[in-house]
Design a protein that fits this description.
4 helices, Immunoglobulin-like, alpha+beta
Length: 186
Amino acid sequence: MKAIRLLLLSLMVPVLAFAHGGEDHSHDEVPSAQTAIAGEPRIETATETFEIVGRLQHGELSLMIDRYETNEPVLDGQVEVEVNGQKANARFHSDHGNYAVDDQAFLKALAKPGMHALVFTVAAGNDTDLLEATLTVGDEGHAATAPAARRFPLSTAAVGGVGLVLALLLSAIAIALARRKPSIGN
C-alpha cells in the first residue's frame, strides 16, 4: 500500500515541476515593456543594434543603452527622444554610464497619466538606429485602485490548480485500490 502511494507521488512531482508558462524565450523581436502597476514608469526596447532600458524617476528620464549583440554599454553617443512631436536630447552622464533627459517641458508632457509612444534616435560610432517604446504612466490613485500584483502568472496558478486536482484524484484511486479486497483463488 505504501509502495503504491510512493509510486503515485513520484509520478505527480515531475508534472508539477514543469508547471509554469507565459515566457517567450525567442530572440526575434523584443517587444517594448510597459510599466508595472506599482513603481516607476519603465520602458524597454531593442533592435538588432541597440537596447534601451529606461525609467521616469527623480525628475528625469534615465536611460541605459547597450549594444544588443554584445551587451557593451554605449558611451558618449548622441540620443534624441521624441514624444507627441516634442523632442529632447539625452545627455550622457559618464559618472553613472547612463543618459538622462532633464528638459522640464518634455518631462511635464511625459509625466501625464496615459500611454506615451516614444521614439529614440541613437547614434554611436558608425551606427545609427531608431527605437520605439511605450511608456505607461499611471495617476497617483491608479496604484490604489488597481488589482494587487499577482505573485504568479494566471497560467501558473491554473496549471498548479490542475496539478492539485490530479494529485487528489490519484490519491483517491490509490486509497480505493489499497482497500479493495483481494479475490480468493481461481
